[in-house]
Amino acid sequence: MTESNTYMYALLWTCSVCGYMKEGGQPKMECPTCASYKTSFVSFPQHLEKEIREVFPDIPPNHKDARAKRMALIAEHDVKKKSTLAGRILPAASGNAMDN
Ligand SMILES: [Zn+2]
Prior knowledge:
Number of strands: 3
Strand order of the largest sheet: 2-1-3
Bound molecules: zinc ion
């Protein structure tokens, strides 16, 4: 059993305002849940997402309880300060995807 790499997501883009999560690719132009602009998205650490899935195995990733837990973990682990990825990829996100 390995503790990491259980999920093979490229990136877990998470809205730092409401906790909405999108797997892989690039952040959405705006959050479908709270309409925050994409710069609100941070890349959420996979080991923290694993924690959420273990606490809530039976609900979808964007269920309000999972989002609330994600928000708590973002605050607890200072994810916003550590991740500025969404801001950095702005030019690429508005044009061609850079990972194709
Ligand atoms: Zn949001």
